[in-house]
Amino acid sequence: xxxxxxxxxxxxxxxxxxxxxxxxxxxxxxxxxxxxxxxxxxxxxxxxxxxxxxxxxxxxxxxxxxxxxxxxxxxxxxxxxxxxxxxxxxxxxxxxxxxxxxxxxxxxxxxxxxxxxxxxxxxxxxxxxxxxxxxxxxxxxxxxxxxxxxxxxxxxxxxxxxxxxxxxxxxxxxxxxxxxxxxxxxxxxxxxxxxxxxxxxxxxxxxxxxxxxxxxxxxxxxxxxxxxxxxxxxxxxxxxxxxxxxxxxxxxxxxxxxxxxxxxxxxxxxxxxxxxxxxxxxxxxxxxxxxxxxxxxxxxxxxxxxxxxxxxxxxxxxxxxxxxxxxxxxxxxxxxxxxxxxxxxxxxxxxxxxxxxxxxxxxxxxxxxxxxxxxxxxxxxxxxxxxxxxxxxxxxxxxxxxxxxxxxxxxxxxxxxxxxxxxxxxxxxxxxxxxxxxxxxxxxxxxxxxxxxxxxxxxxxxxxxxxxxxxxxxxxxxxxxxxxxxxxxxxxxxxxxxxxxxxxxxxxxxxxxxxxxxxxxxxxxxxxxxxxxxxxxxxxxxxxxxxxxxxxxxxxxxx
Length: 559
Hints:
There is one protein chain. The protein is of the alpha/beta class. It folds into three domains: about 5-250, 3-Layer(aba) Sandwich (Rossmann fold), CATH 3.40.50; about 255-320 and about 325-440, ANL, N-terminal domain (Rossmann fold); about 440-559, ANL, C-terminal domain (GMP Synthetase, Chain A, domain 3), CATH 3.30.300. It contains 18 helices and 25 strands. The chain starts with a helix and ends with a helix.
C-alpha cells in the first residue's frame, strides 16, 4: 500500500474520532476522520468538475487550515500535482513561481488576494477561493489513485536565499520512504508498540502545529500526523501561541530555532525580574548544566540542579506544555546553549536536518541518545559524507528526482549519484552529524581566512536580544563588519552594539573580530524582500540594499 492508501485506511478507522482541529480564539474546531475524508472527496469532485486531470498542476495559496489539508490530499488522490505557496510571500515572487509551474487552476484564500494575482498576471489561469471548494454536499469517500513510485506529488519552491527560487519535485517514492522514517521515529519517541493496544486503538497523540504547510518539513509533519493515530491542532494566530498551546497541550510539535530562542529569553527575563533566591538558584543551575555538558560537574553542580528542579523547573515545564515529551526543531541550526537550556528544564529538544531536495529530512535525533549541538545520525538507508570543503553529500531514497524544468540546475547538484547540499558539516565517531554553516555563505577575507558567519551571528544575536537580525560581511576585505537590524521600538543603540562587539572580540582570534558595524533602523522581513519565505536571510538582497552603507564601513576603516 502507498502512504496515501494507508492514510485513507487510518482515517476510516478514526471515522468518529477527531483527527484535525483548528485553534480559533478560545475554541477548538474539530473534524473526525469521516468528516475529513468527506471534505477530501468534495475537493476531488470540485477539481474534476473543472477539468483538472492527472499530471496537471494546482497552485494552493492560503494559510494553514483543515480545508488546506483536505485540498492538498484531494489533489494527490486524483494525481494532480500540488504547488503549495506561502501566502505571506511578496506577490511578485508568488507570480513568478506560478508562471514557472504553470498551474491549471489556482486556489486562493480570499477575493482580495485573487484580484491582486489577476492584476499582476493578466494571463493567470482560473482562480477559485478555497472556501468555494467545499460548498457542495457531503459525499462518501472513494479510494485514492494508486501512485507509482515515479509519480510526481508536489512541487515545493525553495526559499531562494541567494538566488531565484526553484521548484523541487518530490515523487511518491520520496514521500512513502519519508513517512516510514518519521513514523518509526515518532513511535520510538512515544513508546508505541507496532500493534494497537488490545481492544482497539491506542490513545491518540496530541500534536500542535504552527509552521506553514507549504514548507517541506511542515508538509511532511502534516502527512505523518494524518497517517498515524493522532490529533493535529493547527494554530490560527501566531501572536497567541502560548494561549493556543494551553488549549491544545501537545506531546510534541515542530519548531524553528527562532521560537525556542524567544521562549528561552522570555523565561530568563521572567526569572530575572523575580530576583532573590529564585534568580540565584536559576543562574547557578544554568551554570551547572553547562559544566555538566563539559564534563566538569561535581557535587555542587548536582545540588544546584536538584534544588532548581525541586523549586521551579516543574512549574516552567507545565507553562510550556504539561504533556510535552519533546520539542522537535529544524530549518536552521539551534544554538547548543538553547538546547541545553530546555534539557535542563527536563524537555528534550530533538533536532532534524534536511533540505526540500531531501524530502525535508536527512538526519533525526534519536530520542534516547540526543547529543546537544548535533542533529542526529542519517536516517535508515540514507548515506551521508563530507566532500570537498566539508560539503555534506547525501544519497538515498529521500533525494528528489530534480528541479521542475531545470535540467542544468539539477545536474549541478546531483553528481555521481550524490546530492550536493551546499551545507558544511562533520560527523562524529558514532555518525552523529553537526552542521557548521552554509558553503556559499562562507566569508573569505583577503588574508585567506575562511569564516562561517552563522555561528558568529547567532552568538551576537544572543548577546543582543534587542537586535532583530545580525548579518556579518567582509568577503574580499581585510576584516569583518556587521549589519545590526533593529525593530521600531526595541531599544537597540550603537552603544549596546559596540559593547557586545567588544565582549565578543576579546575572546576571538584576529580574523574573527568585528571592526565596524552599521545600525539598520528596520528589521529584515519577508515583506521588504530581505528574508525568505521561511525566515532565512537573503544575503545577496541585503548586501545590494545596503551597498552604500557597507562601502562606507570598509572605506572608513581602511582609510
